[in-house]
What does this fold into?
Amino acid sequence: MYQHFILVASSYTEGARIGFHLSAKEQIEKDVIEDKMKRIAQIKREDVGVHFLVTDSPKWDSVIKLDSFFEDVMVCPSFDKFEEALGFDSKITAIDVAKFFLAVKPMSPLKIQKLVYLAYKEYLLKYRSSLFEEKIVAYKYGPVVEEVYQTFKEYGSDAIKVTDDTDNVEYILKDIHLPQAMGRMLLAKDVEKIVPILLKIIEDYGDFSGWQLVEFTHSEKGPWETVYKPYLNREITDEVILSYAEYEKF
It folds into this structure.
């Protein structure tokens, strides 16, 4: 007989359940299991399910045959890959932040960009740490995360092109819902810091139009004005934000 040690978790990146599978004849060594559990604890993912089964084969097919619960689990080729997938899910991206805002209320692409920037700035000022890894650059109409721009551009040029009436175009993605967006945030490292910041941004700036937020981010001596040069898309670094954010005001 063979003992199976199985770890299962939901992966928002893969859009499926993922797993790690280890089997051994008779019994898996205790120190091997303890090592894997210790590494999982370091990631701080409380949603990882731990399973022990016994079958007559070391193969994954025997696990599925015994219990159909595991049928749709994508088994990672190694523990390192499983660990990497869980770790990636714990990192918030700028697109995750944008989707969170879109799940709360419809808004224009112009407004989305400004709220994503303001969330980044608020988090940076409070915790002296980056909310996400993507760069913020200075476009003509204010701070922009290019990955967010590219992601939502596919929903139509009319909804993304910056014109005088852009802010009258509001949309919300049909496949984004608050429970889904919140679920993604709840897997993130430092969730207790991130979600309050995002909700604060909605409370403080959610009723402003995109163009009002453009005016706000264009404040004299502010981060955007400090770095902006036409057509160069220069980065608004953390150092610039920390040094000049106090000048942003209505």
About this structure: The beta strands are 2-11, 16-25, 49-55, 74-75, 137-139, 142-144. Residues 14 and 136 are 26 Å apart (CA to CA). The chain has twelve helices and six strands. Confidence is low (pLDDT under 50) at residues 156-166.
